[in-house]
Automatic annotation (TrEMBL):
Protein name from the UniProt record: Uma2 family endonuclease
Organism: Paenibacillus thalictri
Pfam families: Uma2
Putative restriction endonuclease domain segment(s): 13-183
Gene3D superfamilies assigned: tt1808, chain A
Length: 192
């Protein structure tokens, strides 16, 4: 199916009517096509990071979800069908069970991880950065596979991602939303 990208103001109602094999996101009513098939490296990193979160969260109330997993980000009290932002982050951690339903997450997750691909890097670094900050995602990780680094952004008291912390493959990342979780990047990047 050819997506009518020239039209704007798409909504979740439109999104639900598209064929299952159409991979796209809607941000502020604009459709963004996604990479049809992520690379092997992308998938290895996704699995390595998601597994570490999953193991930590095994007996806790927070949940981790790897892509594909829809996150609907309403701007206010609009009806479900009128939400104009639906994204599919690589990894999502949600600690408020009231945000979860059979379709995914409605509202800001606590933590999002995006693993850059050449075709999505601009969107992940600029468009989604602004979106996640505006939506109140407490912690946003951007993983750069070829450089083997991770940028971690945390919301400050003013609701802004003021500064990033940059971690290399030799570093351990202290996960900000949890008091006692540290992820060793050497283990995450070991397959590269």
């Amino acid at each position: 199916m050819s997506m009518p990208l020239e039209r704007k103001n798409f909504t979740y109602k439109d999104y639900l009517q598209w064929p299952y094999d159409v991979r796209c996101e809607i941000i502020d009513g604009v459709v963004y096509n996604m990479t049809p098939a992520p690379s092997r490296i992308h998938q290895e990193l996704l699995l390595a990071i998601a597994t570490r979160f999953s193991n930590y969260l095994e007996d806790k109330s927070c949940k981790v979800y790897p892509a594909p997993f829809d996150v609907r980000l309403p701007k206010g009290s609009e009806k479900e069908q009128d939400i104009d932002t639906v994204v599919e982050p690589d990894i999502v951690v949600v600690c408020d069970p009231s945000k979860l339903d059979d379709r995914g997450c409605k509202g800001a997750p606590d933590l999002i991880v995006e693993i850059l691909s050449p075709s999505t890097s601009r969107k992940d670094v600029k468009t989604k950065f602004t979106l996640y900050e505006r939506s109140g995602v407490k912690e946003y990780w951007i993983v750069y596979p070829s450089e083997q680094i991770v940028h971690v952004y945390k919301l400050d008291d003013n609701g802004k991602y003021a500064n990033s912390e940059v971690y290399t493959k030799e570093d351990d990342v202290k996960v900000g939303i949890f008091e006692d979780l540290t992820i060793r990047l050497q283990e995450v990047f070991k397959s590269l």
